[in-house]
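note to self — DONT lose this again. spent like an hour looking for the file last time. sequence + predicted structure for the chain T wanted, 257 res
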Amino acid sequence: MIIDADCHISSHKFDALAITADELIVHMDRAGVDKALVWLKPPYNKDIAPENRAVYEATCKYPNRLIGFGWANPRLGVESSRDMIKRCFEEYGFHGLKFNGAQDDYVIDEPNVLSLIETAAAYGKPLAFHIGADAYENTHPVRLGRIAACFPETTFFLIHIGGAGIPPLDRSAIEVTAQHANIMLIGSAVGERAILRALQTLGPDRLCFGSDMPFGLMHVQLAMYRALLRDHDPAAQQKVLGGNLARVLGLSDGCPR
């Protein structure tokens, strides 16, 4: 079972990179990917409500292929974001929620954001954070370490292993992950050496394959992972390419419980 842990979809093609759920399925079939974790690609006007809705509708259309995560943007207001979190979990039944302090321009561990994280964490589902060099002050790995320490019962996905920019913060991301058992790495938008370093330091149980589709090409990123994992045993390969994500999300044989 191959699961891509980082894919963005859109309600419509509002720019050259935006892809719909139907287009993503085509890419998945081409790459040989069974399932994909999907969240929205933020529109330029930051109106995420219809995009979260589009992710939900996509998971209804492709329930055996797409795993939905919501998206919250604290910049849109604390109460508005709290309502969005409630909708994502209670109405849409998403498997988790993502925060992106780079694209939405906020510091991920400032007090108002922590209050929203607390709201989201109460649902007992994983929370994902863009952690990258593109906005290192807002999304430095150390900040997620502080968050993970505040919510030890919550599983956190550290997206990009501190990559998504130059120079990458992968060493810091791996160090922080090693210090907090409730952090999992999703290795998308980062170089192969960072992925190898994560494997060598943390082993295969803490890393998930992700392509960052459509920013990264799914079939190309999967080929890179297969090359990096060729010297690992089949069990380790399966963990990284889908097993770890299935375990954390509580999937049984690839299907929601």
